[in-house]
Design a protein that fits this description.
There is one protein chain. This protein is an all-beta fold. It is built from no helices and eleven strands. The strands form two sheets. Strands 2, 4, 5, 6, 9, 10 and 11 form a seven-stranded mixed sheet that branches. The protein is globular and about 40 Å long.
Length: 114
């Protein structure tokens, strides 16, 4: 299993970024895909998940600002982030759980600062 994130960077408050997670090594369409984030000195927290049928779930603080999606033909999951706030600053990780194993990408930095 390999998960590779891209699309991070630095933006000003109110800006937007789109993260991508390219997946390989498993049947992508069979599994929910998730995004998590970890700020310095804090635990890794759930951000969003997209299920096999396209239904989604979000942590409360990102609802109506972030949008998760998937493209099964490209084996890729996305996280569209709008109206970014300084408190969204963190390393963002792509995640898939297969049976009892959790797999993570290498993480990508998102910094929101003026």
């Amino acid at each position: 299993v390999q998960l590779v994130e891209s699309g991070g960077g630095s933006v000003q408050p109110g800006g937007s970024l789109r993260l991508s997670c390219a997946a390989s090594g498993f049947t992508f369409s069979n599994y929910p895909m998730g995004w998590y984030r970890q700020a310095p000195g804090k635990q890794r927290d759930f951000v969003a998940r997209v299920y096999r049928d396209g239904t989604t779930a979000y942590r409360d603080s990102v609802k109506n600002r972030f949008s998760i999606s998937r493209d099964n033909a490209k084996n890729t999951a996305y996280l569209e982030m709008n109206s970014l706030k300084p408190e969204d600053t963190a390393v963002y990780y792509c995640n898939v759980a297969i049976w009892s194993n959790n797999y993570w990408g290498q993480g990508i930095q998102v910094t929101v600062s003026s």
